[in-house]
Write a structure and sequence with these properties.
Blueprint lengths: L1 H17 L5 H8 L3 E5 L5 H4 L2 E2 L2 E2 L8 H4 L4 H6 L11 H10 L4 E7 L26 H11 L3 E7 L21 H17 L5 E5 L5 H14 L4 E2 L11 E2 L14 E5 L17 H17 L3 E6 L9 H17 L18 E6 L2 E6 L7 E5 L1 E2 L2 E6 L8 E3 L3 E5 L11 E7 L4 E2 L11 E4 L5 E7 L7 E11 L5 E9 L7 E6 L2 E6 L4 E2 L10 E12 L27 E2 L9 E4 L4 E10 L5 E9 L2 E6 L2 E6 L8 E9 L3 E10 L4 E7 L7 E4 L3 E3 L5 E7 L15 E6 L1
Parallel strand pairs: 1-4, 1-10, 4-5, 5-6, 6-7, 8-9, 9-10
Antiparallel strand pairs: 2-3, 11-12, 12-18, 13-17, 14-19, 15-18, 16-17, 20-40, 21-22, 22-39, 23-37, 23-38, 23-40, 24-25, 24-39, 26-37, 27-28, 27-30, 29-36, 30-35, 31-34, 31-36, 32-33, 32-35
GO cellular component, one term: lysosome
Organism: Mucilaginibacter rubeus
Function: Alpha-L-fucosidase is responsible for hydrolyzing the alpha-1,6-linked fucose joined to the reducing-end N-acetylglucosamine of the carbohydrate moieties of glycoproteins.
């Protein structure tokens, strides 16, 4: 009997995890939206419109006016009695979104103030029970979207300033989610996913959950609605799509489904009555170009409106959206049903989307010579034309590029034009960066890889750009058998990776492999004194100053009060505690002299929450501490150049009152080699190589393989 129960439990676990991620068809349907409407509409902050006590509140975002104006909780709650949006019409909002070319709507069901825009049994602080309006806004918007063929998603704030058992209002919004608050959130999520039909995405925001809370809520959503896409702001690397920073438009390749949330004005998302709105034409061009940049990188663009307290849409925002919609109507072919730019280089003249037999060139800046060059394009071009116009454009093709000549008077300033390039039998794009060696030995590592990124982190403030995949293209100069091998260190030991060579994937565990005989000439390495500066207000990603050729006699930043100071008493490997608050960072610098030769050496770096390690300005490692362990150590390989080298380490804190730190250079210098099966390569042919983690805990999890190298040596 016990055995039968055990089998049943195992089956339940399998079923449980089978629903943990939406099916690929649902992911594709979400990605195909391209352009969506975000709506920040709240029963109190929309009425206030950024004004308190008759004065504009200029600090912070207007939807967070309760915190920024210091309004007492009971005073703020009583303002719900003033919410009666007589001009709210969900059908007109849905029709506006449709006219703007948007495919879905994401409405704020509850923002940080805790006021629910839906009928809930968890609190009477909601739009039905606490206001004279007495109507369920979420229900009306859901039904309107269904009537007009739009998908419907919901924003849900994980923090709640009205719930008594929640953490109090903070300055950073990464508030701890108490166990009681977590259960409260689950009850409200249950209502939202049970009472309002199909929800295309659940857009969680802010708060700092434990890994267990994030994972439980992620799986909880998919048990209720398996096709619902979850945003990565759920935290702890959970989520089906990565959310960029507010109004962030990345210029790099992203290896997961992603979205860029944007507001009309960086200063606010909720309605602000005194907002200076400027020129509609300039705002239209700004938002249209942002949309183009996002879709050309393969992402979705989520553009926000902030209705007034009476429920009406701001005329400025409506007019801009309708103008974008008119442009999209003309150029829809280049937006919907397309994939990301297939080229491996950015273009100053604009951006590209693609279909199997067609390329679409969005010309936002006309080149001075009137020529658009597409490098490495393989495939016969049959026609080049401007969408919506009858005129064909002249072009020339060579083996390594195609060149299109823009006609005289071609102007993208008043109206962005799209050039359609028909490639009759399909196309290929050669990578720009091809690796080869005249010595029949090719070495691949993270520094010569083409990287695909995501967004990783415990919460919003500890987010950083994670690397989820690395790829290379190799070009052997001679035909024959090549011996592939993977070199790694104790940092990578135990990792399981998927290595793809020429479209054949092999799963490999980096463990129990032969040790390389290596002993660095430590006598030729001189470790200089340690210098430190900080603390600085910071997130995990990025640096407060420049990492290039640091001068310790000058401050690291413009903050002249924080100079570099020598840690004279520091001993190799000594663990020290640096006092720090939330979102604080220190920088530690060590000059290393390697004499006259190139020397490889390994060091161990110990830190607390987050860390970035750079050598001579080049990043070697970025990582955080999702399990919130007391400290975490990393083994880092240093390719020391002859002469002086600068090792810069950023240590970051987001959950403790201090940052533990240690730097140790007297560690075992272990290097392991995994020999793989020989491969036969043809001379001067191109072979793709890629690397990613095998079955990672999350698609956003960073590789964390800083010392790994892949070799191809001719036998």
């Amino acid at each position: 009997m016990k055995k039968i129960i055990s089998i049943l439990l195992s089956l339940l676990v399998c079923i449980h995890f089978a629903f943990a991620q939406p099916p690929s068809s649902s992911i594709k349907q979400w990605q195909d939206q391209k352009f969506s409407m975000f709506i920040h509409f709240g029963g109190i902050y929309s009425v206030l419109g950024g004004v308190w006590d008759g004065k504009p509140v200029t600090r912070g975002l207007s939807e967070q006016i309760q915190a920024h104006a210091g309004i007492y909780s009971d005073t703020y709650a009583n303002l719900a009695k003033n919410f009666n949006p007589i001009n709210w019409n969900a059908d007109s909002i849905a029709l506006l979104a449709k006219a703007a070319g948007m495919r879905s709507v994401v409405l704020t069901s509850k923002h940080h103030d805790g006021f629910c825009m839906f009928k809930t049994e968890t609190t009477d602080f909601n739009v039905v029970d606490a206001t004279p309006f007495n109507r369920d806004v979420v229900k009306e918007m859901s039904e309107a979207c269904k009537r007009h063929g739009l998908r419907f998603g919901l924003y849900f704030s994980l923090i709640d300033w009205h719930y008594p058992q929640a953490s109090p209002i903070s300055s950073h919004n990464s508030d701890y989610i108490t166990p009681e608050h977590h259960e409260y959130n689950k009850k409200q999520v249950t209502e939202l996913l049970s009472n309002y039909g199909t929800i295309s995405e659940l857009w969680f925001d802010m708060g700092s959950q434990s890994p267990e809370q994030s994972k439980e809520l992620y799986q909880f959503v998919h048990r209720l609605q398996p096709d619902c896409m979850v945003s990565s702001r759920l935290g702890n690397d959970q989520g089906d799509f990565a959310v960029m920073g507010d109004n962030q438009y990345p210029d790099y390749s992203i290896g997961v489904p992603w979205q860029s949330p944007a507001s009309f004005f960086d200063e606010t998302w909720g309605y602000r009555s005194w907002q200076k709105r400027g020129s509609k034409d300039e705002k239209y061009k700004e938002k249209l170009e942002s949309l183009i940049r996002v879709i050309s990188r393969g992402g979705n663009y989520l553009l926000n409106i902030g209705p007034k307290g009476d429920g009406s849409v701001v005329g400025f925002e409506k007019d801009v959206l309708l103008k974008i919609g008119a442009w999209l109507h003309k150029n829809a072919e280049a937006v919907y049903g397309t994939t990301a730019d297939p080229f491996f280089t950015p273009f100053k003249w604009g951006n590209i989307t693609a279909k199997p037999n067609k390329l679409y060139l969005f010309v936002t800046s006309v080149p001075a010579d009137g020529l658009i060059t597409l490098p490495g394009l393989e495939g016969r071009i049959s026609n080049v034309s401007v969408l919506g116009e009858q005129q064909s454009l002249s072009f020339k093709q060579a083996t390594d590029a195609a060149v299109i000549t823009l006609p005289a008077g071609f102007d993208s300033e008043k109206q962005i034009k799209v050039i359609a390039v028909d490639v009759a039998e399909g196309y290929k794009v050669q990578p720009v960066h091809i690796l080869s060696s005249s010595y029949d030995h090719i070495k691949l590592n993270e520094h010569n890889a083409y990287n695909y990124y995501s967004s990783s982190g415990i919460d919003y403030n500890s987010n950083y750009q994670s690397t989820v995949k690395q790829s290379w293209t190799i070009k052997p100069k001679h035909k024959g058998k090549y011996q592939p091998a993977i070199q790694y260190t104790d940092e990578e030991k135990g990792s399981i990776i998927d290595l793809n060579v020429n479209n054949v994937t092999t799963t490999l565990k980096l463990d129990s492999d032969r040790k390389m005989k290596y002993k660095p000439d430590t006598a030729k390495i001189k470790w200089g004194p340690l210098y430190i500066t900080g603390p600085y207000s910071a997130g995990l990603g990025g640096l407060n100053g420049s990492a290039d050729k640091i001068d310790i006699s000058e401050p690291f930043t413009k903050d002249t009060d924080k100079s570099w100071r020598s840690v004279n008493e520091y001993k190799n490997g000594q663990l020290i505690d640096l006092p720090a608050g939330m979102d604080n960072a220190y920088y530690i610098l060590q000059n290393i002299n390697a004499g006259k030769d190139l020397i490889y050496a390994q060091v161990k770096v110990t830190s607390g929450d987050g860390i970035i390690v750079l050598l001579n300005g080049r990043q070697l490692l970025i990582n955080n501490n999702p399990g919130k362990a007391a400290s975490v150590s990393h083994v880092i390989g240093l390719d020391l150049m002859p002469g002086n080298n600068q090792l810069l380490i950023k240590v970051f804190n987001n959950f403790k009152k201090n940052i533990p730190f240690a730097l140790t250079h007297s560690i075992p210098q272990n290097i392991y080699v995994k020999d793989l099966e020989p491969l036969t390569f043809e001379a001067n042919e191109l072979y793709p190589v890629s690397l990613k983690l095998h079955d990672p805990a999350s698609p956003h999890q960073t590789l964390k393989l800083p010392n790994l190298e892949i070799w191809f040596a001719k036998k």
